[in-house]
Amino acid sequence: MSKPAVSELILHRSPIVMRDTATVLEACKIMQKHRIGAIIVVDEEKRPVGIFTGRDAVNRVLAKGLDGRRTLLSAVMTAKPDCVSPDWVTLDALRQMSDCGYRHLPVVKDGKIVGLVSRGDFRLMDQVRLDEETGYWERI
């Protein structure tokens, strides 16, 4: 049995990215619109410089009384996030997330962001794999 790669989790979607000069409010609106829990913060060459999550919005902005309309992502993002390559085995990426307490992990190829995996992606992958192995195509 082959070990699936992270690239299988990011095949059909592009990562949602923003610059660090965007405000927290702008980022939260984008996360709400796309129903995602994190945004990758990139420089002008699409290299990841940070990650901003819904938890960051609560813990680093709201709980501290900051104004999301004025607070820039650069002030509250997690800078220099750990990243994985598309070639990583999914189990290794999941282990990295679990060991470090991450819910999201940027995927980088040649220094540029190509995707973002979340814990939910691994659950979905398991459900699809189970469906294929049992011959059932409906979602469980």
From TrEMBL:
<keyword id="KW-0129">CBS domain</keyword>
<dbReference type="Pfam" id="PF00571">
    <property type="entry name" value="CBS"/>
</dbReference>
<feature type="domain" description="CBS">
    <location>
        <begin position="11"/>
        <end position="68"/>
    </location>
</feature>
<dbReference type="InterPro" id="IPR051257">
    <property type="entry name" value="Diverse_CBS-Domain"/>
</dbReference>
<protein>
    <submittedName>
        <fullName>Signal transduction protein with CBS domains</fullName>
    </submittedName>
</protein>
<dbReference type="InterPro" id="IPR046342">
    <property type="entry name" value="CBS_dom_sf"/>
</dbReference>
<feature type="domain" description="CBS">
    <location>
        <begin position="77"/>
        <end position="132"/>
    </location>
</feature>
<dbReference type="InterPro" id="IPR000644">
    <property type="entry name" value="CBS_dom"/>
</dbReference>
